[in-house]
Amino acid sequence: MTWSLFFTQLLNGLQLGLLLFLLSAGLTLVFGIMNFVNLAHGSLYMMGAYFAAAAFRWSGSFVVAGLVAVPATLVLGLLVERIALAKLYSRDHLDQVLTTFGLILIFNEVVRFVWGSASVYMNAPQALGGTVALFGLPYSAYRLAIIAVGIAVGICLYVLIHRTRVGMLIRAGASNAAMVAALGVNTRLLNTLVFGLGAALAGLAGLMAGPIFSVQPGMGEPILILTLVVIVTGGVGSIRGAFYGALIVGIVDTVGRAFLPGILREFLDRAFAQAAGPAIASMLIYLLMAVVLALRPQGLFPVKHG
Amino acid sequence: MVERFRSPQLWFAVSFLALLALVPVIAALIGQPYYVTLFTRITVFGLAAVGLNLILGFGGLVSFGHALYIGIGAYAVAILTYHGITSGYAHLGAALAVGAVSAVLIGLVCLRASGIAFIMITLAFAQMFYFLAVSLRQYGGDDGLAIPSRSDFGVLKLDNAFILYYLSLALLALTLYGFQRAVHSRFGMVLRGCRSNERRMIALGFPTLRYKLVAYVVSALVCVIAGVLLGNLTRYASPAYMQWIVSGDLIVMIVFGGMTTLLGPVVGSAAIVGLEELLTGMRLGLPFGLDGIVNAHWMALLGVLIILVVQTLKQGLYGSLAARGRRPA
Fold it and tell me: How confident is the model at residue B289 (pLDDT cuts 50, 70, 90)?
């Protein structure tokens, strides 16, 4: 195990974590403010990736792909919210789970119908195609760009939530939605705004993920489940929790998969380690989540009320 | 007591089960033995849905991870058979033991959370076991593991499709009877009390976690049994059985049938499995090549149907029927 390899894996983990942050930020706000379970968030991410891939194929430009994918996902998210979900805010979680589950099935089939079952490929922009020397190590420029975008979004969200009036209303809504409504704030508009923000971020995540993951039907579900792990670990409704939770999950998952089998081989019988290593590595983040929940059921960075 | 025997619901339940019992006879008469397999699927998924409904419908705990226990059942059969142990009692015993230990541990962690967090955590645990199954290279990994011969229960020859069907049906009837007693017992009352107002139950001095944990484990074990049956039916154990879509399907079955009733999930299972069969396989004779589109993309139709049912039919198919039959109290 060399340090340069470890460092590269750490950066990969950071990159996965920041990608997860783009998804968890929107989802955790929707959970926190509207008390709403949106399993279709992963589908919005998938649609974002497909919009981006289609625009990229049409124009050949990554920038155009981004300019198409993010607004398109935003509009799609708002449409879905208005048509199917707005009625469900006051219903119980089971109805929300089922409706968004139904939406996932529909989106997957729509994608399969329009673009086919095979993966659609999308290249990184030309300027970011190569590698960058980072502390003497070569690292993919595009992955570095994902890290930069993730951090930029994190800073923007921090400013939005903690320094603006809208952000104040969002925080107030997360801590007591009924009170905010009673004070005369148009919470319906606020809900739509938050949902749209989440959808746009999901679209952005889809765009950024396009060149490194394969764009295919059902690509939203594995990442949705990782996002849920992030949110539960970080604390439901908290942007800060989503940020740190995403980094922890991304790094633990990536580094664990890369090094755990090797470490196990040091201590255990070779054949057993070979079989158990990947199994334990793939379970690592869920075990982490279980430990966090057992010790702190509210998550690591819960929303502070009051 | 007498009142209970007059209840239309009981009569519906008995006639529904009797009708299911007649399926193999009818299938043999019309020379379509395939229907026995189809109805075994309905019964097995009905059993799993009935199990899940104990905590979902009566306990108010929305577990989005019960496919995990179906997987444990199926993999217990597959892995033991792979190592040359064919005894059905060993399969069942191992499956129940592993299922019980997992359910107690997972239940203890999950039940610390409630509401949205409970849904997400159960989902995450099921996913964890899914990835565990995928990474078990020795046992087929991604592809799953074929089960060369069905569980050996001595006199019960499961290789006979009829016997497998009647075994599933008998287990379903037994579970329904047991749950009927449990739901109306003190235990069931406490469970339903937790659904309505847990804080009050705690204030009344009930150790609610203990009750919920017992309900969680029992419902998991019913799903484990369904998994053993499913493994025997398909002669295959695949990670796909633990996929979160399966957990979602189970919930959909419960809600379709009616989650406040015991029999509802079975009706829901019949509706969903039947619908899948109808939409994937049948020539519906629609114009403009719509047949092919429907057959290939039936999941989208299922999605639309789920959304419509959730928005309109609050009590489910059987639930609405049962509510109509009930006299206003």
Answer: low
Closest by CA position to B269, among listed B223, B216, B323: B223
| Predicted confidence (pLDDT) at residue B2 exceeds the cutoff of 50 | no
Spatial CA neighbour of A210 closest among A124, A127, A109: A124
The per-residue pLDDT for A45 is 94
Write down the domain spans for chain B: 2-325
Residues 257-276 of chain B whose Cβ lies under 8 A from any Cβ of chain A:
259
Distance CA A255, CA A11 (A): 9
Q: Quote the pTM value.
A: 0.88
pLDDT of amino acid B298: 83
Q: What share of chain A is helix, strand, coil (3-state, %, to 5)?
A: 75, 5, 20
CA–CA distance, B17 with B172 (Å, rounded to integer): 9
Domains defined for chain A, CATH in brackets? 11-122+137-295 (1.10.3470)
Q: Which residues of B touch A31 (CB under 8 A)?
A: 116
Residue A264 CB contacts under 8 Å (≥ 6 apart), including other chains: A273, A276, A277, A280
Minimum distance, in Å, between the CA of residue A278 and any CA atom of chain B = 6
The whole-angstrom distance between A101's CA and the closest CA on chain B is 7
Nearest-angstrom CA–CA distance, A127 and B324: 67
DSSP H or E stretch at residue A48: helix A41-59
Q: Which of A87, A97, A108 sits opposite B311 (nearest CB)?
A: A87
pLDDT at B5: 53
A248 or A178: whose pLDDT is higher? A248
Which DSSP state fits B305? H
Residues 86-125 of B with CB under 8 A from A: 109, 112-113, 115-117, 119-121, 123-125
Find the helix or strand (DSSP H, E) in which B227 lies: helix B208-234
Residues of chain A contacting residue B62, judged by C-beta atoms under 8 Å apart = 93-94, 97
What's the rounded Cα separation, in Å, for the pair B65 and B67?
5
User: Which CATH number is correct for B2-325, 1.10.3470, 1.10.405, 1.10.3860, 1.10.1740?
Assistant: 1.10.3470
Residues with Cβ within 8 Å of B145's Cβ and at least 6 positions away in sequence, in order, are B75, B78, B79, B82, B139, B236, B237, B238
What ipTM describes this predicted complex? 0.84
Does the pLDDT of residue A40 top 50, yes or no? yes
